[in-house]
Specification:
- This protein has 26 helices and 4 strands.
- The two termini are 51 Å apart.
- Helix 18 runs antiparallel to helix 25.
- The radius of gyration is 29 Å and the shape is globular.
- The protein has a two-stranded antiparallel ribbon with strand order 1-4. Strands 2-3 form a two-stranded antiparallel ribbon.
- With 554 residues, the protein is mainly α.
């Protein structure tokens, strides 16, 4: 081989090596540009979070059924003594002549003594007007308050029907996910946010004029089924353009804004006398979010994924201008360059179901993580809903129970990376469970202590809510992570659907909901201890890496 041929061969070899190195170099993505050039959390991201915080706060108003369909004290109407209608004194002097007492010493809500056919008056209703040896069910009721659908639609002693409003609302929040997902991916994050906000406000406004309970339920279902995607749409806006360093913090800010919304809900319910007025006051402002279509920029990640490169360029330049940074021409061209379509096939061609069944470790996790989600949503929503029955100060109890979530969310940010996932998650479950059990055994006259224990239990489950998503995602391999996370979340909705029905269980024994919350939290905390610690480990990409978690050095 001649010298020239040797040189040519060297140049060719070097060229191939350079080409190989270039091909192996990690392509520039948006996270790289945020970290190195645009800024992970600048004025643009701050402004975005402020803007989307408003619809996130409003999304909490879907829980308005806690007050609009609240249980109110009631008893049988006694027409023999001049009661014709629902608005009479709940406990007149003669009431024990006509209505029996319960075992706890209160008035029976659903039973009365059989009338003998003679009449008295509001001022004179003696015991000899009734057969006190025979108790019959009520057919009409007298109510202590008129600020609930229970009064308007005469739902006395129909506790399961009353509680069904919350369950139907939760079912709607499940069905809205694929609908919002389609709109968000097809038409953009901004359109999804605006459409959901419009539907949310529209159906709630119409619901305020319901003429019967069926109409109220149908409109509530439509409101959540077609509008509850407000939160997920706004959450994506808040997190998509924040750098990796600040995503945990942003993940704590968003649920904290929901807690603020719930506190506003409690305050408005406290300040208004009618549930119809409350519904309008909370939901009519949702129509203001329609204006976001004109002054909230579209998600940069969505624009890039849809190859809308002209709009993406303008958006990136706007981010750089607002953050007072610059994006290099090389980075801009790399982001605006069409990406080659790649399809990743699981190793060995295994599909998800066969992979789970063939891996005992993965199968145990698939059986464990959904229970965490069920327990978390049941306890989290259950404690909020049942807080209104703690004492006569139902509105203050609710506001405090929701407000305690905020320190719980930010406590997670402080401890999750310091003490680890397992101690944080199991500790949150055990704390909440212990508080629920203690709440049951504390005497009722310990009002302040019981409230503090109740709030501490909500604080514990708030820590779980914030850390659960992170820990669950770290247990599954990349090739199956999205599907298995979605499966856990979907099964977890059983808890949120069941939570509104738990107050109805108190009819049989008033501590039933809290024993249930404590038991679920205790079992979930124990199940957390069966899984490996993931703090400091890289996300597993393959099934083998996921199976090796906790067994290899970091």
């Amino acid at each position: 081989m001649t010298e020239n041929e040797d040189n040519a061969e060297d140049l060719k070899r070097n060229g191939n090596n350079n080409s190989s190195a270039n091909s192996m170099r990690k392509p520039i993505d948006l996270d790289d540009v945020l970290i190195n050039e645009l800024g992970q959390f600048g004025w643009f991201q701050f402004k975005n979070i402020i803007l989307v915080s408003i619809p996130i706060i409003m999304s909490a108003f879907m829980n308005e059924y806690i007050f609009s369909a609240a249980a109110i004290p009631h008893r049988c109407q006694i027409p023999e003594c001049g009661e014709v209608g629902k608005d009479f004194e709940l406990q007149p002097e003669w009431i024990l002549n006509a209505v029996p007492e319960t075992n706890s010493g209160g008035l029976s809500s659903c039973e009365r003594y059989e009338p003998l056919g003679t009449n008295g008056s509001l001022n004179f209703c003696p015991a000899d007007l009734f057969n006190r040896h025979n108790v019959i069910a009520c057919d009409r009721f007298v109510y202590a308050k008129n600020n609930s659908v229970v009064y308007d639609f005469d739902l006395g002693c129909q506790e399961w029907m009353r509680a069904f409003a919350g369950t139907l609302s939760s079912i709607g929040t499940v069905l809205v996910l694929p609908i919002t997902g389609y709109f968000s991916d097809r038409f953009g994050r901004r359109v999804a946010l605006v459409v959901n906000s419009f539907n949310f406000g529209l159906f709630a406004t119409i619901r305020a004029f319901s003429t019967n309970y069926t109409m109220y339920l149908v409109l509530y279902f439509l409101q959540t089924c077609l509008g509850a995607g407000v939160y997920t749409s706004a959450y994506i806006f808040a997190t998509e353009l924040v750098g990796p360093k600040y995503r945990v913090l942003t993940g704590a800010i968003c649920p904290s804004m929901v807690a603020v919304g719930l506190m506003i809900l409690g305050s408005v319910a406290w300040a208004t006398e009618s549930w119809r007025t409350m519904t309008l006051a909370l939901n009519v402002p949702c129509f203001l979010i329609i204006s976001y279509y004109w002054f909230l920029g579209e998600s940069v990640r969505w624009l890039l994924s849809k190859q809308k490169y002209s709009q993406a360029r303008n958006a990136l330049e706007n981010v750089a201008k607002t953050n007072k940074t610059k994006i290099s021409q090389e980075s801009m061209e790399a982001l605006l360059r069409p990406k080659a379509e790649t399809t990743v096939h699981p190793k060995g061609g295994r599909n998800l179901i066969s992979a789970v069944l063939r891996s005992p470790i993965l199968l145990r996790r698939v059986c464990t993580t959904p229970f965490w989600w069920i327990a978390t949503t049941l306890v989290y929503y259950g404690l909020s809903i049942n807080s209104t029955s703690l004492s006569s100060t139902m509105y203050l109890n609710f506001i405090l129970t929701c407000g305690i979530e905020i320190p719980g969310n930010f406590a997670t940010v402080l401890i999750l990376d310091r003490i680890g996932r397992k101690p944080t998650l199991s500790g949150g479950y055990f704390l909440s469970a212990a508080c629920n059990f203690l709440f049951v055994i504390l005497p009722k006259n310990f009002t302040v202590v019981r409230l503090l224990i109740y709030l501490l239990g909500k604080f514990g489950i708030s820590i779980v809510v914030t850390s659960l998503y992170i820990y669950t995602s770290e247990l599954y391999p990349t090739e199956y992570r999205h599907s298995l996370m979605g499966f856990s979340s979907m099964i977890g909705r059983i808890g949120s659907i069941s939570a509104p029905l738990t107050p109805a269980l108190a009819v049989y024994w008033e501590s039933t909901p809290f024993v249930m919350f404590g038991g679920m939290g205790l079992l979930a905390g124990l199940l957390v201890l069966t899984q490996p610690e993931t703090r400091g480990t890289k996300l597993p990409d393959t099934l083998a890496e996921a199976e090796a978690l906790g067994t290899v050095s970091k």
